[in-house]
């Protein structure tokens, strides 16, 4: 009898230990940026630590050390379960995400913090219904800081001075802005930016101040068109595979979202703003000239780009979104209303 009881005790211990092990869920977070990049070091990594903490170790996020593939593939990595969680840039897959372009329009905000928080709330109220993130659960959306135009050897005091300039640009609304300003787009990976500018292949680049410093662009440009509210922004996502999200307990879902959503958008915004300030400091040390359009120059710029907003509202409306109301709410949110 003693042997039987001992055997049962051992079995119970094994079952208990197995239960503890199975209670912990480990989720793989895909990564395609170097660890020193602000998006990784100041946003994703601290968020991972927060998730591990608020779930009391029941859900453990692990950031992968090597990329699973190119950045544009990362949304589908989450959809298909290649990774459990991914982050990325919406406009890396042209035409796929339309509603999210509302956060990329010119003149929206001088800070990522204000825009990112407002964007998350507008996404939840107006944009989520477009179901552009199908197959995933959206953990957060946010933007980087205001994108500006940085050039070498160009007169930035008038629109005529930049017309015809060869500019390395990203996709999305940034492309529309470049076209409206009569710039000549140069398509190339961001990692080739320094090479393009130093070799004279491009006359400039569209970048937030953070990226100017991170990619050492301050060494190959001499002036920047710094526009109130920015010329454009870039929208980011953090998503989890839908089935994986559904497999979590309600308690863990609630815990994860307590440090995601608006909380993660706020963290991201503050991190981008701090990185932008470091970028401006680096450019000031290099003696780069900042041209800030005011008065008639600012009015001319806004008139030139008026069609960008109108076209975006029309495209977004075709997705079944009340784009006019969403944009008004976004602007009000940025203004703190």
TrEMBL record:
Signal peptide location:
1-23
Any one GO biological process:
transmembrane transport
Task: Extract the coiled-coil ranges from the record.
Answer: none
Q: Which UniProt keywords apply?
A: Signal
- Supply the name of the protein: TRAP transporter substrate-binding protein
User: What is the organism field in this record?
Assistant: Hwanghaeella grinnelliae
């Amino acid at each position: 009898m003693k042997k039987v009881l001992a055997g049962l005790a051992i079995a119970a211990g094994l079952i208990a230990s197995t239960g503890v092990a199975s209670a912990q869920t480990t989720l793989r977070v895909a990564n395609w940026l170097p660890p020193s990049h602000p998006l990784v070091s100041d946003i994703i990594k601290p968020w991972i630590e927060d998730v591990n903490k608020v779930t009391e170790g029941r859900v453990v996020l692990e950031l992968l050390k090597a990329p699973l593939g190119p950045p544009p593939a990362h949304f589908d990595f989450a959809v298909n379960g290649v990774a459990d969680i991914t982050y990325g840039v919406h406009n890396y897959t042209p035409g796929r995400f339309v509603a999210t372009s509302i956060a990329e329009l010119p003149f929206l905000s001088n800070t990522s913090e204000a825009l990112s928080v407002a964007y998350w709330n507008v996404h939840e109220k107006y944009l989520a219904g477009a179901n552009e993130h199908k197959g995933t659960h959206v953990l957060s959306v946010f933007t980087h800081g205001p994108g500006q135009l940085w050039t070498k050897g160009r007169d930035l005091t008038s629109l005529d001075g930049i017309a015809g300039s060869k500019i390395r640009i990203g996709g999305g609304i940034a492309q529309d802005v470049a076209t409206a300003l009569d710039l000549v787009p140069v398509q190339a990976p961001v990692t080739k930016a320094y090479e393009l500018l130093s070799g004279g292949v491009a006359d400039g680049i569209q970048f937030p101040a953070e990226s100017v410093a991170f990619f050492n662009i301050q060494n190959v440009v001499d002036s920047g068109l710094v526009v109130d509210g920015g010329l454009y922004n870039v929208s980011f996502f953090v998503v989890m595979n839908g089935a994986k999200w559904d497999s979590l307990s309600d308690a863990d879902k609630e815990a994860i979202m307590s440090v995601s959503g608006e909380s993660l958008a706020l963290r991201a915004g503050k991190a981008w703003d701090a990185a932008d300030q470091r970028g401006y400091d680096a450019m000031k040390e290099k003696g780069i000239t900042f041209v800030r359009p005011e008065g008639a120059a600012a009015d001319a710029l806004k008139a030139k780009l008026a069609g960008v907003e109108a076209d975006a509202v029309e495209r977004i409306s075709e997705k079944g979104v009340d784009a006019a109301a969403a944009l008004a709410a976004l602007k009000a949110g940025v203004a703190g209303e």
